[in-house]
Amino acid sequence: MFTRPKRLTTSIDMAPLIDVVFLLLIFFMLTSSFTLPSLQVKLPTAHGQSDTSPEVILVSVDAKGSITLQGSPVSLSQFDQKLRALSQGQVDRKIHFRGDQSMNYGLFVDLMDRARQIGIVQFNLVHDPKK
Q1: pLDDT in tens, 28-49
Q2: Which of 15, 59, 67, 106 is most buried, by the most CB atoms less than 10 A from its CB?
Q3: Contact 100, 19 (CB under 8 A)
Q4: Does 27 map to a domain?
């Protein structure tokens, strides 16, 4: 009888390669969906209620950039020391930001950064309820 000579087959197992490509596809799909939105939005009103507990510090900024702290006007240079005096070293106090719809966003970020440097980490944005 004839016996066929055995041939060496040269093939690559594709299963691990397909698994790696599939995992990379999932990774890139998930990470690309978490990018920041590029739309400009206005947040003047929202459903919900704001916190009115007595241990909060209220910071208000109007459209012109005037700052009030607990109802009294304050300049940007005095904001740090007035806020430090109001917080009295208590880092668990909350700050409520009331900002005009057309205020400068950079000023808002600057005020929040100054509050963080003092040690306050709880921030709330006050809004008008939707009708």
Answers
A1: 888 776 554 443 444 456 556 5
A2: 59
A3: no
A4: no
Tokens of 19: 């698994």
Find all residues with CB under 8 Å of 59, minimum gap 6, and list them.
67, 68, 69, 83, 95, 96, 97, 98, 111, 115
Contact call for residues 107 and 59 (beta carbons, < 8 A): no
Structure tokens at 89: 């070293």
CB 46 within 8 A of CB 127: yes
Residue 33 lies in a domain: no
Residues with Cβ within 8 Å of residue 63, at least 6 apart in sequence: 100, 101, 102, 103
Range of the domain at 91: 45-129
Residue identified by tokens 């698994």 is 19
Name, in order, each residue with C-beta under 8 angstroms of 73's C-beta and a sequence gap of 6 or more: 66, 67
